[in-house]
Design brief:
The protein is about 60% helix and about 10% strand. The protein has about 575 residues and is of the alpha/beta class.
């Protein structure tokens, strides 16, 4: 079945539509279950109105055997529809988890501010609702008119009374939703805010402890927690009131239905079996509405999760696979490059044009806030709000598949994160470990001997090594990861910020080796003593290129004042 042109399903809705056959099967088995739900009613009518009058034991045995068989069929149908939904939920997760992972990564890359874990929580909420009891209410509710019709056949007044209570409970469900939706959404929002706040702050636990900031952090957390508790209390209070009113209506319905049946029995218009059967049918007719009322909160949670996940997937579409290209040589060019940031009116980078030839080493210098780190992120294609073009071998980075391009790029950021795994796995970028390449990268960064001193060597888990490594050692492991596999383009952001003399000497040797291999290297630095190892210098001031050319020409053009600005008062090695 093709989707009409005028009705375009979202990616998430289209994925759910794939499971329409499973939902159809569940609907068929729900029909069987609901039809067989009439079994207790018919059984009671036969026992009270036929068996007790005829005193026939064989009839009772036959009726009981038939009822037991139908109950078994009903239990089997309920089990099958549950199994179908559980299987559909597992396959739904399998169909979406990789896509959600990629979209969450894209959102984090764009610095959207969304809690990365929330997307997987949203997916779990959708799956749990689709495999829980709440979904059955939507399959069972259409059968309520059938039960009402049977009640009308028993006696019109029973049908009218049942219809009134169905309308009353339906209205309670609808207005209960209108009454509680804002408070439920408030609970979800404040809970997400508290979790995101704690997640972000606990990553800096050492700084918080060292600077005595815990009391201030706790006070801010308490303010958020207090808002969450207030929202939760309001939501629970509204839900309790709704549940109390619903219970009142349900208890009243049972008593009034029994009373109405008793009056009809007294007047001779109904048998005792019909009175009891009518009460059972009434309970069954209202069961889906009761289930919908009790599951409404999970439905709202699932609906909120659906819209959030739908927005996430729409804002972060699947990356194109791209065309296989030959390995780049490192010929890098930027054309009218503009970079912006959220909440900032003026651009960080303003129409930059420059070329970086293979086999060249370029130092990017300038005062703090001039856009050097932003330029580094643009050069490797990870800055989200970018205009203009960044061309690698004449092809814009956005046209490359990142999985294809990644091995050809080396990047060392200022903040170095060691990922879960061993030292060797971190250097090998979590891919298949090629021992020779790992050791070569470690040697080039001057970290090989230090790694061998660990009891497990290259197999040392980073959870353990991360606590033992100094800032300089972490930086050198990050450098080894950046140059692993000899990529064509290497961008190093403050690679010598934490290095001692030995580390800086290893860095200079690494730069010379990369140059001899014809690699394109760009390094951002405040420490001018590394300048001797570069060929060219690019001076960036206020997001614009002031100077760019061979090292000797740029140094000669720099007056003492701007040269001091370039150093930006950075600490020099002793």
């Amino acid at each position: 079945m093709r989707t009409p042109v005028f009705f375009k399903r979202s990616e998430l809705a289209a994925t759910l539509w794939v499971f329409r056959r499973e939902f159809f099967v569940v609907g068929i088995f729900s029909m069987v279950v609901n039809l067989l739900m009439l079994t207790p009613t018919l059984y009671m009518l036969q026992v009270f109105d036929r068996v007790l009058i005829s005193q026939n034991g064989l009839t009772l045995i036959a009726l009981s055997a038939i009822a037991l068989f139908l109950f078994g069929v009903m239990a089997f149908a309920e089990w099958v529809r549950s199994r179908v939904l559980v299987g559909a939920g597992v396959r739904l997760d399998e169909a979406l988890n990789t896509r959600v992972f990629n979209a969450t990564f894209e959102a984090a890359l764009k610095q959207s501010g969304r809690n990365p874990v929330q997307a997987f929580t949203d997916l779990t909420n959708i799956r749990q609702f689709l495999t829980g009891n709440g979904i059955f209410a939507f399959f069972d509710t259409p059968w309520t008119p059938i039960y009402l019709l049977v009640l009308f056949l028993l006696h019109p007044w029973l049908g009218v009374l049942a219809f009134v209570f169905v309308l009353l409970l339906g209205a309670l469900t609808y207005y209960g939703h209108r009454f509680t939706q804002n408070s439920t959404a408030g609970v979800l929002e404040t809970a997400s805010d508290v979790n995101a706040y704690m997640h972000s702050k606990l990553r800096n636990a050492e700084v918080i402890e060292a600077l005595g900031m815990l009391d201030h952090l706790r006070r801010r957390w308490r303010n958020r927690q207090y808002r969450h508790l207030q929202a939760a209390a309001l939501s629970q209070d509204q839900n309790r009131r709704l549940q109390s009113l619903t219970k009142f209506v349900r208890y009243s319905q049972q008593s009034l239905m029994l009373a109405a049946g008793a009056l009809l029995v007294i007047d001779g218009e109904l048998t005792i079996g019909g009175m009891i059967a009518g009460n059972v049918l009434m309970t069954r007719a209202l069961a889906p509405i009761d289930l919908m009322t009790s599951s409404w909160k999970s439905f709202i949670t699932a609906r909120t999760a659906f819209h959030a996940l739908e927005t996430l997937l729409q804002d972060n579409p699947q990356r194109a696979t791209g065309v296989l290209r030959p390995a780049p040589t490192g010929d890098l060019r930027i054309e009218q490059l503009v970079a912006r940031a959220e909440g900032r009116a003026e651009p960080i980078l303003r129409g930059l044009d420059a070329e970086f030839a293979p086999g060249s080493i370029t130092a990017i210098i300038g005062p703090s806030g001039s856009g050097k780190s932003t330029l580094a992120r643009c050069l490797v294609g990870i800055w989200p709000q970018r205009a203009g073009r960044v061309l690698l071998d004449g092809e814009d980075l956005s046209n490359w598949s990142r999985s294809e391009l990644g091995p050809h790029i080396g990047y060392l950021p200022q903040d170095i994160e060691m990922l879960e795994g061993t030292i060797a796995e971190n250097i090998a970028r979590l891919g298949a470990i090629e021992s020779e390449k790992v050791i070569e990268a470690a040697r080039r960064s001057g970290i090989h001997d230090m790694i061998l001193r660990f009891p497990m060597g290259y197999d040392t888990p980073m959870g353990e090594a991360g606590n033992m490594l100094s800032g300089g050692q972490r930086q050198r492991i990050g450098l080894a990861r950046a140059i692993y596999g000899n990529p064509a383009l290497i961008v190093l952001d403050e690679p010598n910020a934490n290095l001692d003399d030995a580390g800086e000497a290893a860095l200079v040797e690494t730069l010379r080796h990369l140059k001899s291999l014809g690699k394109t290297v760009l390094l951002i630095t405040h420490r001018m003593n590394i300048i001797a190892a570069v060929d060219r210098i690019l001076l960036l001031v206020d997001g614009q290129i002031r100077l760019h050319g061979p090292r000797a020409e740029v140094i000669a053009a720099l007056s003492p004042a701007p040269r001091a600005a370039c150093r930006d008062a950075a600490p020099q090695p002793a």
